[in-house]
Amino acid sequence: MLERGATHYHDPFHWPVLGTSAKDGVRLRCVILREFLMPDRVLVCHTDARAAKVEEISNAAKVSWLFYHPKRKVQLRISGRATLHAADPFADRQWAGTGVSSRLNYCATQPPGSAIDSPSSGLPDFLLNKAPTLLKTEKGRQNFAAISCRIDSIDWLVLRVLGNRRARFEWDESGLNAKWLIP
After folding, report:
1. Percent of the chain with pLDDT over 90
2. DSSP secondary structure string, the chain?
3. With bands split at pLDDT 50, 70 and 90, how would you rate the model's confidence at 101?
C-alpha cells in the first residue's frame, strides 16, 4: 500500500500526515509521499528548506506519519527517524525527478508561513500567469529539501464491522518483531 501511495496520485496513501515536535507541541501537516524505498523501509517527501518542519526535524529527528485508506479502512501509524537532504546527491536525485508544477512550490520569494498583506502564492512576477518552464523553475532548487525517514515501527489497524484487527511491527538490531494487539 505504501508503494502504491508513492506512485499513484489518487491513492489515499499518497497524502499522509507528517508529525514533528516543536517547542509548543506537536505539529501536523499533510505531505505528499514521493517514494517508498524497500527493503530499507524509507519514506520520502519533499519540503521547502525554509519551512518550520526543517528546523523541527533538525532539533528532534523522531517523526510520525499517519496514513488512512477510507475504502480499505486501513490506518497506519508509522514512527521513525527523519533525515534532511538539501545539498547532497539524494536531494539532487529527488529534485531531478520533480516536474515543473512541483518545482513551483519552491520558487516563493519568502519562506513558508511568512505574513503577507493579501492572499498570494508568493511566487515572483516572472512565474505568475504563465506556463512555467523547467528552466524558470530551476531557481527553486535552492529552497528544495527532501525528507527521508527510516521506519522503526508500524501500528497497523484495519476497521471491520465484525471486529477490528490491529498489529504492531517494530525493527531493532535483532530484526523484525511483530505482534497482534487488541484494537
Report:
1. 88
2. -HHHHHH-TTSGGGS-EEEEEETTEEEEEE----EEETTTTEEEEEEETTSHHHHHHHH--EEEEEEEETTTTEEEEEEEEEEEESSSHHHHHHHHT--HHHHGGG--SS-TT---SS------GGGTTS---HHHHGGGGGGEEEEEEEEEEEEEEE--TT--EEEEEEEETTEEEEEEE--
3. confident
Please report the pLDDT score of residue 136 as a whole number: 78
Q: Can you give the length of the chain in residues?
A: 183
Mean pLDDT of 108-115: 94
pLDDT digits (tens, 9 = 90+) for 123-177: 888 777 777 777 778 889 999 999 999 999 999 999 999 999 999 999 999 999 9
Angstrom distance (rounded) from CA 90 to CA 86: 8
Average pLDDT over residues 84-106: 95
d(CA 163, CA 158): 9
Query: What residues contact residue 107 under an 8 Å CB cut-off, 6+ apart?
Result: 123, 124, 127, 137, 139, 140, 143
Q: Is 169 in contact with 76 (CB distance < 8 Å)?
A: no
From the list 75, 79, 24, the residue with the least C-alpha distance to 52 is 24
